[in-house]
Design goal:
By secondary structure, the chain is α+β, with helices and mostly antiparallel strands. It has two domains: 184 residues, no CATH class; 164 residues, no CATH class. It has 14 helices and ten strands. A six-stranded mixed β-barrel has the order 2-3-8-5-7-6. A hairpin with a 2-residue loop joins β6 and β7. The protein is elongated. It starts with a helix and ends with a helix. This is Efflux ABC transporter, permease protein. InterPro entries: ABC3_permease_C, MacB_PCD, Macrolide_Exporter_MacB. It is found in: Cell membrane. It comes from Candidatus Woesebacteria bacterium GW2011_GWA1_39_21. Its main location: membrane.
């Protein structure tokens, strides 16, 4: 109990000293607060981006196989989805012949070609930057899209190259006063005009919500003169058949392309790679944010050195009436730790408030790891940078300290 009371007295004395110079105390803790704020926000935003990507993949359904042009999962790179850029820059140019071949895979319930192009979409009154997507009637099922108004185009529309369009919710909202008002209206993409057949419900995917989907055969011409596709989705209603569909897809495409010309991957493989990438990214973000904490720690050390100089006479008097070097060391060390913890707690509170606001627009999150890291680093900085000025104060000769002016 005496030990506890002694430590309590040390912290009480530290608070008394803080009240002597409130402005200096606040400014000293400010460096740690900004550092903690940076670390927590960077981690929260990193987690938010990971959550966002995970949500988008999961919204497609679990039994999904994706075919990309180029080799983005080669064994030469150690496996996994490790080279997106190089893969998309070259490789196979999928066309309708590939779609027809893949449709022969009996285990595949869905085969969806996707042509995608960023361009200006116009109505009579507005124009917005959106995504033109040439696909088939199965895409709405495999992408888990639901109708907000009107209806989706059909297989007959694809075959007939109908000039029908299905708008994403955000694009419809931007081009017309109300998404329901878009039905039956005309939109323009390039030199083509399309009649709006339906509007999809809001999905939370920026690309999907800002897209205009049309039958892929309708794009053949000025919009897609090469008649090629950016990617191909295959789906199955039976999760036990995902592996079979994947292998048969590879076998089918290898009859026409080299192994290095394309990549066949499962949604779960992409999610696994995303998780690995963001583990590394979060570590880097913590390291970057910790630089601010280091700067804040140096600020605490400077202030504590100045405090030792200002209170030299006080230290001498305390030593003269019986205080040991350990007592003096503990006193200044306690002040340094408290300054760091105060900054850490304030930084944590402010970052929590900011993340709470951000969550209305983006799935950022604060996890237990970031809280523990914040408090541990704050305490560690207080101890590390507080030791040097505290040792200097403890080693002051009592007589010289009393005489100091």
């Amino acid at each position: 109990m005496k030990i506890f009371d002694g430590r309590l007295d040390i912290f009480k004395a530290a608070f008394v000293d803080f009240r002597r110079s409130i402005v200096r105390t606040v400014l000293t803790s400010l460096g740690i607060m900004v550092g903690v704020l940076s670390v927590v926000l960077l981690i929260a935003l990193g987690i938010g981006l990971k959550n966002y990507l995970t949500q988008q993949f999961e919204s497609l359904g679990a039994n999904l196989i994706i075919v990309f042009p180029g080799n983005i999962s080669s064994s030469e790179s150690g496996g996994g989805i490790g080279n997106f850029g190089a893969g998309f820059a070259g490789g196979a140019k999928f066309d309708e012949k590939d779609i027809q071949s893949l449709e022969r895979i009996s285990e595949a319930d869905y085969v969806v070609p996707v042509f995608m192009k960023s361009m200006i979409i116009e109505s009579d009154k507005e124009r917005k930057l959106g995504y033109l997507m040439g696909t088939n009637e199965q895409s709405f099922k495999i992408l888990n899209l639901e109708v907000e108004a009107g209806d989706f185009f059909t297989k007959a529309d694809v075959t007939a190259r109908a000039k029908k369009a299905v708008l994403g919710y955000d694009l419809a909202d931007g081009l017309f006063d109300n998404p329901d008002d878009a039905i039956g209206q005309t939109v323009r993409a390039g030199d083509q005009r399309f009649k709006v057949a339906g509007v999809a419900k809001k999905k939370g995917d920026r690309e999907q919500d800002g897209s205009v989907s049309i039958p892929y055969k309708t794009t053949f011409g000025t919009l897609n003169p090469d008649k090629t596709f950016f990617t191909i989705y295959l789906g199955t209603n039976d999760k036990d058949k995902v592996g079979i569909v994947k292998e048969k897809t590879k076998e089918t495409l290898l009859k026409r392309y080299k192994n290095s010309d394309f990549t066949v991957t499962e949604q779960t493989e992409i999610l696994s790679t995303v998780n690995q990438i963001f583990s590394i990214v979060n570590s880097i973000l913590v390291a970057i944010g910790s630089i601010s904490l280091l700067v804040g720690g140096i600020g605490i050390m400077n202030i504590m050195y100045a405090t030792v100089t200002e209170r030299t006479k006080e230290v001498g008097i305390r030593r003269a009436v019986g205080a040991t070097q350990k007592d003096i060391l503990n006193q200044f060390l306690a002040e340094s730790i408290l300054l760091s913890l105060m900054g850490g707690v304030l930084g944590l509170l402010f970052s929590t408030l900011i993340v709470f606001i951000i969550r209305f627009f983006f799935p950022a999150a604060i996890n237990l790891f970031s809280v523990i890291v914040t408090l541990v680093i704050s305490s560690a900085i207080g101890i590390f940078f507080g030791v040097f000025p505290a040792r200097r104060a403890a080693k002051l000769p009592p007589i010289e300290a009393i005489r100091y002016e």
